[in-house]
Design goal:
heterodimer; A: 2 strands; globular; B: alpha+beta; 29 strands
Chain lengths: 391, 484
Amino acid sequence: MQTQVAEFPLTSATASRTTASVPWFCLAAVFAATCIPIGALWDISWHSTIGRDTFWTPAHIMIHLGGVIPAFAASWLIFRNTFTTEENRVPGVRVWGFHGPLGAWVIVWGALAMLLSAPFDDWWHNAYGLDVEILSPPHVVLAMGMYAVAIGALLLVLSWQNRAENPKLGSLLFIYAAGVLLTMSTIIITEESYPNQQHGGTFYKVSCMIYPTYLVATARAARIRWAATGAAAVYTVLILLMNWVLPLFEARPLLAPIYNPLDRMVPPGFPLLLIVPAILIDLLMHGFRHRKGFWWDTLLALLLGLTFLGSLLAVQWPFSKFLISPVAENWFFAGNQMWPYWINMGDNKYRFWGLERNPLTFQALAIAALIACVKSRLVLGVANWMRRVQR
Amino acid sequence: MRSILVLILLAVLAPIHAHVGTKLVYFEGDSGSYRVRVSIRPPEVVPGLAQINVRVLKGDVTQIGVLPVKWDAGRVGAPPPDLCTAVPGETNLYTAQLWFMDMGAYSVFVDLDGKAGKATAIVPLNSISTRRLGMPRWMATLFTVTGGLLIILLVTIINTAVRDGVLAQGIGPDKTRRRLGYLAMVVAAVVLTSALARGKVWWDKVDREFRNERLFKPLQVQAQIKDQRVELDLASIRHDMRDRTVLVADHGKLMHLFLVHKTSGALAHLHPQRLKDDLFAAELTALPAGTYTLFADITHESGLTQTLLSEIEIPTSLPSRTLSDPDDSTWLTNAGPALSTAAQVTVPLAGALSVNWLEPAGLVADGEAVLRFEVLAGDGRPAPIEPYLGMWAHLIIVSEDHQVFTHLHPGGTVSMAAQDLFAQRERQRSGKQSLDVICGRPERELVFPYSFPKAGRYRMYLQTRALGQIITAAFEVTVVGNHG
């Protein structure tokens, strides 16, 4: 059997099933997935400010909508694809006798994981008490589900972009979806990324593990320039909006003990300056646009990793010093305003933490650089697949 | 005073389904012009929800608010009060739920508002995790099956993604792509299995930390008999005390030590002196030979109360001697057999005194039991009682297997010292209150609100002072299960 693999640039044959306008399911999935990081940031603020909640808080509803709407859209897509004629199908794959786009399958998987996490989380609260930390095993299952929903939305958009004769609109939507995913990733590692931790080694290792994934993949898989910059801009705007909107609402703690009296919803804190590494990544990717192949990608990954770490260090090191200073304590930078009601930070909010245990040594930097380079190389491989995905 | 449910080490080490009961905190007393009985079922796991019930016994209350106050945060560090709602079918019972977010000494402040003005009752309690929940088999099966299906589905999706994802619709994969698909499937399975294994290691770590650092276990203290005195060394448990604040006196004593004979039920209620930093000692008088369980009540400056445990062997019966602390007392046996009727159990005591336990029937595990007693003189009239250790009476309840131990007063199970500490911290008048205001002066009956945590046989020791003597009356109790 002859196999036709879609290679860049796309042939007209592989782009035969595209439509000029964005399919409804792409829009539904991507914009509903946006509810997840916004809902999560809202929920964290809720827990940090008010504390007491129910299943039906607006933040929880927003998160659930972020799972439910894409799940319904994906399920309908799979149902329709399975029982319609071949020519009316959206390109997809067959799983367990059902037919649907890859993105739809990933969304369904994510929704099921979110569903499974609910009784697990409930049992966890009963067994170990209501958790006040972000990372716990049931929360990781929930986060995996959320990630899968967002990745599924991204795959739906990608396959549409890759089949389109004019991929610009699809690329823009893809970049937006990548920005949403990037925002989600920053939320997951909130507890490792406070400005007070940004002179320690762990922050840079974790950042190198996480952020090149999104920035490099976006830059490689999108069909337009400045894709990584666009994704970082989406992240920056989302966080800035939450930073500025949340404190507009009056709220006060409803749980004890209250060591930090609050009267406004706390903001998430100023976004990381990922926009700077993103610009450099885009420039590098553009410079290597005609150099394809395993070894060119390996060299590119090496440069991407070092560039990411170097630029992040160059901007975040001095900026974090500014953010923990009293000068940043205003509505724009929201410095030192993210601390929850149960912590009296005292002067600790003006200090960098754990520098004795976790200094940014040459060894820590070398490890971070290695992580960034290896991660970039792996991501380039995956992104090459993303750039060609059709179904 | 205090009430602490104690599990002996055997019970602590028993399987998690070996349930020994829940603990309820009771306070009954006057607050301003009102009299209330507050019962609190603290959360078994912290952070968790406590159930608060307030029964108004006297006064016209129009609104009741409750709020949790942690010892080092005070009322200023507490949220606005939650308003209690009336329980349907009851005329004077109100209820609310409160979150306890932190471990340590808390108080529930009960704000009463009515025609007689505003008043606040303080009900101290320990906010501690006392239970480790096992996962039911059906739930484990559900998670295993659905989790397994999710993993298989994900591996299948990854296989098809690699095999077919980049192919145009209608074109099938060649042999290479099929192999790539299988390879991706294997890699995904290995990665997911590794992630699951890592998750299990994480879960085990959380569980281990919960058991070692957050699950409250009664501490085993070293004890020995030396020169007809009992010595307790707290040095070995100092690190595990969960509360770094110093010990404070409760009713003028740093420690209230109870020795209970394993078989006969002989009781010594002693008040050891601190000899050195962590070494406490109390003289012993006549006690029969045998094995004794030691229950030592202490109160921290924070308001946290603990009961320390130990066991000692007295090889030969001890001779009688005069104890240097006049508040120390012992009980070996009642003066005569108890006389039981449907309405009461009467225990005769020396000096023609007797103690009646009124309405003794119908005790059910985990239900509210109001234990009423009266002390009568030889002529059948109420005997004038005097405060003993600052209280009108003490009731010590020990289960037959010594797994449950409680020491309470007519004011309930709460620690009066902790109540005073919280009150002082809030700069209220409680520290200057007279005894009458705190728990009400009994006219004829001594009333103890309590809830037996599990079914079984118990012994109750009522202690008070009458005719200048400390008197102790012991009662046998059988508590039935709440389904039987």
